[in-house]
Amino acid sequence: MTERVIIVGSGPAGLTAAIYAARAGLEPLMIEGMEAGGQLMLTTDVENFPGFPDGIMGPEMMGLFRKQAERFGTRIVRSDVSKVDLSERPFKVWVGDELHEAEAVIVSTGASARWLGVPGEENLRGHGVSACATCDGFFFRDREIVVVGGGDSALEEALFLTRFASKVTLIHRRDEFRASKIMAERALAHDKIEVRWNSVVAEVLGDDAVTGVLLRNVETDETEELAAEGVFIAIGHTPNTAIFDGQLALNDKGYLETYENTSTSITGVFGAGDVVDFTYRQAITAAGMGCQAALDAERWLESQE
Hints:
By secondary structure, the chain is of the alpha/beta class. The chain is built from six helices and 19 strands. The chain has helices spanning 11-23, 58-71, 133-136, 152-161, 181-189, 283-304; strands at 2-8, 29-31, 45-46, 56-57, 75-77, 83-85, 91-95, 98-107, 111-113, 129-130, 144-148, 167-171, 193-196, 199-205, 212-217, 223-227, 230-233, 237-239, 269-271. Strand 1 (2-8), helix 1 and strand 2 form a beta-alpha-beta unit. The radius of gyration is 21 Å and the shape is elongated.
C-alpha cells in the first residue's frame, strides 16, 4: 500500500504535522524514531508555549501532542528510518528491511545534542557525563556538578539542576552569555550557580565515574582541575539530516534547505522544525512549521489529483 504521506521524525513539528494531516483525512504514517518526541523530551519546564500558564514539563507536553495525533488516526512506528530513496515517486522509506512508500514525505527529524569531543567524555557517558538534565539530574542530589555552555539551553539546565545539586558551575568560553536576558539574570542571581568565564573543558576526569574536569582558560591558556561528580553538556545541536545527504539540498551547516513555504529541493518532500530552523529553535515555531508542512503537503497532493 502506498501511503498518502509519511512523516519522518517526531517532536513538535512532526506531531503537529501529523495532527493536521490526520484531520485532513490523509491517514499519515509517522516513523517517529527511537528518540521519540524530539528535544522537548530533554527539556524541563516549558514556560513559553501558549495555553500553559503554569508551565508544563517537556515530556508531558510531547505525550499530549502524541495522544492528539493518534486520536485523529495517525499510525506511529517507533523505529528509526534506515534509508530513503527520493529519486522518484512513490518515495521509498525503509525501516530496517521493511519498505514503506508514500506520495509525499514530511521531514521533521530535528537535531541532536553536540558533544565536546574531549578525552574522558565518551567513556564516562552514563557515568556522570550527560546531555539531559531532566533524565539524570535526580542522580546528583547534594553533589557538585558542572554545566558546559552559555545559551538558553545551558542556563535552563543549570537552573533545573540546582533543585538537586549542592553547587552548579557554568563553564562558558566567552565573557558573557549568549542566552536571553531573563535566563542570564536568573542564572547569575542564583546562589547555587557559579560561572567560570573564558574557560573550556579540556578533559573529563575519572576512571569509572566523573571526579572532575580539567579547565583551560582561553585567554591565558592556564589549566586547573575542578572537582565535580557530574558534567552536563549543553553546547548546541547538529541537524539530523545524514540520511538525506545527497538527495535533499542542505545548507553549509547541514540543515535542510526549504524554498517556497516548506518545500524542499524535491517536489513532494517538505521540511519542518529544527531540521530546517537554526535561527529560532523554539517548540512553537517548530509546531507552526509542522502545521505549514502538513497544509503544503495536503494542497500539493490535491493538485496532483
